[in-house]
Amino acid sequence: MPYFSIRTSLISSIVLLSLLLARPSSATKVVQVNIICAQTRDPSFCSDILNSKPGGAKGVDLVSLAQYTIGVARFNATKTVELLNMLVARKGSDPRAKSHYSTCLTHFDKYRGALKHLYYVQQVLRNGDYFSLLKAATLLIVDVEDCITGDDYGYFDMSILPQYADVFEKVADIILTVSKFLIRN
Ligand SMILES: *[C@@H]1O[C@H](CO)[C@@H](O)[C@H](O)[C@H]1NC(C)=O
């Protein structure tokens, strides 16, 4: 019996200790989707994206939401690069169009653009460096702004590119917003 009770108290000490150590840190902080999304440019778009996380977004920590959103952004940027390659090929004879789409390609591609910066975003998130995450997410938005307005070089863009770039920018805005919550918590 004494042996048993020592063992029991040892176990309860371990349980207590792990409860103390497992107190919520920023890494496991949970913020409701509607509270996060209220801070974004397009709250209903934001809710749709975060709630599309397999298994739902309820009770999911901020880091996991950021990770999921980075995946969405990567998918959107990849689709946009595919679209741009097609547009550059198709509009080869129109110098203004070609110049606009080629520039946008550099804003999205994996060498200089959003896909490269997304890799960096992933790294700093993994390192828990949320200030760098905020900066990198801001860069993503700066990257693609010209491709939404479509009128640099005096070119009025009639393609679907502005819509694609707008989706990407709104997804990047979610990453930016989550990074602010990560810094705050
Ligand atoms: C962006 O990603 C979302 C989620 O993966 C997808 O539903 C949507 O079709 C994508 N949009 C574009 C323009 O790639």
Task: Sum this structure up briefly.
The chain is built from eight helices and no strands. It has 185 residues and is mostly helical.
Q: Would you kindly provide a written description of the structure presented here, covering whatever features stand out?
A:
The longest helix has 29 residues. Helices cover 72% and strands 0% of the residues. The model has no long low-confidence stretch (mean pLDDT 87). The protein has a single domain, classed as Butyryl-CoA Dehydrogenase, subunit A, domain 3 (Up-down Bundle), CATH 1.20.140.40. Helix 4 runs antiparallel to helix 8 and helix 7 packs antiparallel against helix 8. The protein is built from 8 helices and no strands. The protein starts with a helix and ends with a helix. The protein is an all-alpha fold. The structure holds 2-acetamido-2-deoxy-beta-D-glucopyranose. The site of 2-acetamido-2-deoxy-beta-D-glucopyranose has 6 residues, from helix 4 and helix 8. Pfam families: PMEI (PF04043).
Low-confidence stretches: none
State the total count of DSSP E strands. 0
Small molecules bound: 2-acetamido-2-deoxy-beta-D-glucopyranose
What is the number of domains?
Answer: 1
Series of H and E elements: HHHHHHHH
Q: What's the name of the CATH homologous superfamily?
A: Invertase/pectin methylesterase inhibitor family protein
Mean pLDDT: 87
- Class computed from helices, strands and strand pairing: mainly alpha
Helix content range: over 70%
